[in-house]
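Private note to self, pasted from the team thread so I don't lose it. Backbone tokens:
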């Protein structure tokens, strides 16, 4: 009798965990207003997409595309690991084709693009559908009457620190002080380097919010390149030099071996 009751409790716990895990696979939209956002009609709305990892979001990626459309963005930022090194590119290519027809898009590589050893092919695809690929570059755009410098750097997976910092410096030197200056970089943990430059806004992903996010403390159980109790995993952080850094939890689902807990995949909508 006791053994039967124990099995019931055990399987009850397993079923409950599976249900909870399934709930945390549902994508959400997080809205973040950056400090200093103007209210004179020149406000810019952007969507930050990171760590898609070629995951499936319905036929023709319809559910994800509809989430983007609902935000009515002016710009799309693609913050790395949009492609995966193991899953086929099909889902990502469909998504990129669809959004690039609707919005100006800016892309940087992540570590999984480099692990695939097809990063050049992936960058070429982005450019073929009209997406701007940033690799130590800066593009200036005008949105709602505001001049915005959009900088981006490659993921440093196979780069020396010197080469990566040269990309960062090169991008920064193309900015203007009277423009709003944004850096798109996959890695959030490189805060010490980011604080050497006065970007208004830094956009990252990579951490997957530690896969298991610790509620109330906004820490990750474990994140790559940050280890246990990872700090830069989700939301907005103010750096010591006054820059704002936003880290997305990303959109990875079936590409990861572990489920997400307290960590729904997310699309980040930014007002700045």
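Design output:
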């Amino acid at each position: 009798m006791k053994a039967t009751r124990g099995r019931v409790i055990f399987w009850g716990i397993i079923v409950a965990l599976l249900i909870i895990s399934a709930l945390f696979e549902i994508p959400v939209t997080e809205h973040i207003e950056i400090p200093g956002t103007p209210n004179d009609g020149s406000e810019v709305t952007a969507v930050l997409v990171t760590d898609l990892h070629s995951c499936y979001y319905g036929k023709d990626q319809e559910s994800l595309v509809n989430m983007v459309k609902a935000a009515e963005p002016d710009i799309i930022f693609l913050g790395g690991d949009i492609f995966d090194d193991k899953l086929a590119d099909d889902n990502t290519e469909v998504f990129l084709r669809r959004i690039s027809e609707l919005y100006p898009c800016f892309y940087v590589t992540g570590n999984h693009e480099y692990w695939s050893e097809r990063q050049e092919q992936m960058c070429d695809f982005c450019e073929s559908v009209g997406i701007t690929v940033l690799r130590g570059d800066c593009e200036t755009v005008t949105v709602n009457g505001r001049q915005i410098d959009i900088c981006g750097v490659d993921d440093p997976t196979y780069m020396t620190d010197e080469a990566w910092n040269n990309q960062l410096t090169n991008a920064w030197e193309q900015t203007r002080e009277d423009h709003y200056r944004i850096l798109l970089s996959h890695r959030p943990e490189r805060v010490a380097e980011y604080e050497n430059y006065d970007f208004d806004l830094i956009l990252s992903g990579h951490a997957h919010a530690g896969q298991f996010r610790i509620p109330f403390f906004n820490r990750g159980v474990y994140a790559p390149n940050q280890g246990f109790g990872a700090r830069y995993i989700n939301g907005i952080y103010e750096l010591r030099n006054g820059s704002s850094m936003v880290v997305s939890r990303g959109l990875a689902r079936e590409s990861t071996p572990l489920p997400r807990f307290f960590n729904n995949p997310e699309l980040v909508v930014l007002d700045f």
